[in-house]
């Protein structure tokens, strides 16, 4: 009798152990993410034509549209959109950012923003030697429209110097956005 | 001189040779008793016992990473992504059984100001996942969106599914399935070193 009772107990215990080895009905995991400062920029125009109306040497004008996304740090964050003429007008004998035919000739722009950030406050002169400001961002700045993005416009003015020879002239302007 | 009753019932003298023979018979009997193994039954009896095991449908989740980090790859404001593999075992009822592994956000991202499953800062923000490589059952198809209000599918189990051993059961034991998570990188999230949410996986089998 004693021997038979022991066998039954062993079978019951084995069954219990086998059930425990199958794991549990639920399990949890923690999903975590680090969010840092970021910035992204798209230029809306494939190119920016500068045109002059009339025949009395009114300045050439045009505008470049920007779409941007920004996130600056909660504490001590900042950022900006700047531009720089990375390739002067060519071919020669027309307008020039670096060596204009007349001292007053220039490529200038004004800024406007629809969204986060502060547009440049007055007319800026574009340069091949250094970057100039388009938008300034402060602490904890965030794009207000997502996924569409915020927008800005750089409105150009180019002196219409009679010394320019007739023809088509192109320059390259590079926009840069940064955030910290 | 020793006098003993003989086989005829009469008292008679026992010779020395007879005493020796008697003595050896006695030793031999003792020796025989010693050499005979103990426990040899004189008779054999049998008894029967019926053992009954009721095998039910079961499912279990085994150890898997208790955390998954979502990181950025590629261009700015591209999604955060990360992967997770879970282990499981299951047995579903023959012919009419089934089961599943599901996942639900049991705790939304904290602290506030960053991503949120229940109340994202932009309507298109979402924590989503795809499933692949289920070694038992069918992995979820397409992109699933994690919710705090309801569970979403990871693996669907059919009838007669079982883990391990091959043949009609899976060859793998435990079984595994991989999930790839993506999280919208909304510029509206405030910067922070860590935002965390808790996901609860549940397995069931019938």
Q: How are the SSEs ordered, and which strands pair?
A:
The complex is a heterodimer of chains A (180) and B (206).
Chain A: H1 2-20, E1 26-35, E2 38-43, E3 60-71, E4 79-90, E5 107-114, E6 118-119, E7 124-125, E8 132-137, E9 150-158, E10 170-179
Chain B: E1 2-5, E2 11-14, H1 16-35, E3 58-61, E4 67-72, E5 80-91, E6 99-110, E7 127-132, E8 138-139, E9 144-145, E10 152-157, E11 175-183, E12 192-205
Antiparallel strand pairs in B: 1-2, 3-5, 4-5, 5-11, 6-10, 6-12, 7-9, 7-11, 8-10
Walkthrough of the structure:
The complex is a heterodimer of chains A (180) and B (206). Chain A is mainly beta and 180 residues long. In chain A, the strands form 2 sheets. Chain A has a 5-stranded antiparallel β-sheet, with no helix packed on it. In chain A, strands 6-8-4-10 form a 4-stranded antiparallel β-sheet, with no helix packed on it. In chain A, 25% of the residues are buried. With 206 residues, chain B is mainly β. Chain B folds into 2 domains: 34 residues; 148 residues, Immunoglobulin-like. Chain B is built from 1 helix and 12 strands; from the N terminus they run ββαββββββββββ. The longest helix of chain B has 20 residues. At the A-B interface, helix 1, strand 1, strand 2 and strand 3 of A face strand 3, strand 4, strand 5 and strand 12 of B.
What's the short story on this structure?
The complex is a heterodimer of chains A (180) and B (206). Helix content of chain A is 11%, strand content 43%.
Low-confidence stretches of chain A: 1-21
Q: Going across the major beta sheet of chain A, what is the strand order?
A: 2-3-9-5-7
Q: Which stretches of chain B are low in confidence, meaning pLDDT under 50 for 5 or more residues running?
A: 27-37
Rg of chain A, alpha carbons = 32 Å
Order of helices and strands of chain A: HEEEEEEEEEE
* Largest sheet features of chain A: 5 strands, antiparallel
Please state the second-level CATH architecture of the largest domain in chain B.
Sandwich
Number of strands of chain B: 12
